[in-house]
Amino acid sequence: MLRLFLLLLAFVFAPAATGPHAQGQPVTNMRLYMFDCATLKNRDPGTYSLARDQVQALDMSDPCFLVVHRQGTLLWETGLNDGVYNRTGGGGARHDIIGQSLKSQLAEIGYKPTDITYLAMSHHHGDHSGNANDYASATWIVQKAEREYMFGATKPPTLNNDEYIALKDSKTIVIEGEKDYDVFHDGTVILIATPGHTPGHQSMYLKLPKTGSLVLAGDLWHFPGERTFHTIPKVDMGKPSGVQTAASRAKIEALVKKTGSQLWIQHDIISNLNLKKSPLYYE
Ligand SMILES: [Zn+2]
Is the pLDDT of residue 8 over 80? Predict the structure, then answer.
């Protein structure tokens, strides 16, 4: 009986994901890896209701993240599409730059797309969902309103969903009623409903054993100036989406205050310069 109990314990606590730890390096602490999934060049601060002197840099970072938890892995964002942007030093009308594919950056630390247990994105826009088709074997976690907009009744006819079309058939956890979702049921990785920028936009709260807690805020803010000067993107001003954005920002600010979290604005290229990039990681 005791042996059976120990065997069960060993099973429960065995790492579920493959990766470097499968080759003899057990992950005892949760890890967060950050990848460079593009640089978005020469953005217009006016789009976000900011003057030129209210932003330090016009380029935006476009990171992706991998959370490695004892019970599995979660990929947060998939960056700009490799095929469209060709990964050869430029692409698109705005000359956005992609250095290395997300797949190759994951391979560098020992993960294949099929090793990803969960996929979650802040929202469906192309700089976040570009390579989502590669991760359709993962369980996709999405707010109901976002999935409806991507594939369902509220999808605009002009919206091109080719770059994430495979998610339509993925095993999916649909979060209803704008609730937050505790991915591993232990309070360490929580998807926070923050609608506004898109109907089912979400942010991610992490509680890391050494780094402490942090919030990856998706596109709730793009330039840090939006947080400093409380500006709403022009397209949302005077609209329900603008009201939602303001409420979602207030929700995140309250969470940050309550938990003493760091807040990472994902597109803030200057702050992101100082963050550790894969193969280094936070734990
Ligand atoms: Zn974005």
Answer: no
Identify any residues that bridge with 31 across adjacent strands, giving them in sequence order. Answer: 68
Decide if 149 contacts 198 (C-beta within 8 A): yes
CA distance 151 to 166: 11
The predicted-structure confidence for 227-238, as pLDDT tens digits, reads as follows: 999 999 999 999
| pLDDT (0 to 100) of residue 92 | 52
Please tell me the distance between residue 139's alpha carbon and the centre of ligand 1 in angstroms.
Answer: 22
CA of 259 to the centre of ligand 1 (A): 25
Instruction: Find the distance separating the first CA and the last CA of the chain, reported in whole Å.
Output: 36
User: What is the C-alpha to C-alpha distance for residues 154 and 161, in angstroms, rounded to an integer?
Assistant: 13
**Cα 183 to ligand 1 centroid, rounded to whole Å:** 23
- Cα(21) to centroid(ligand 1), Å: 32
Which residue from 20, 19, 34 is spatially nearest to 76, judged by alpha carbons? 34
DSSP at 207: E
pLDDT of residue 125: 97
Residue 4 C-alpha to ligand 1 middle, in angstroms?
Answer: 49
Tell me the domain boundaries of the chain: 26-273
Q: Is 88 exposed, middle or buried (0-12, 13-18, 19+ CB in 10 A)?
A: exposed
Residue by residue, DSSP assigns 151-172 as HSTT--TT---GGGGGGGGS-E
Mean pLDDT across the chain, nearest whole number? 90
Domain 26-273 sits in CATH at: 3.60.15.10
Ligand 1 centroid vs 23 CA: distance in angstroms? 35
266 Cα–ligand 1 center, Å: 8
CA of 235 to the centre of ligand 1 (A): 14
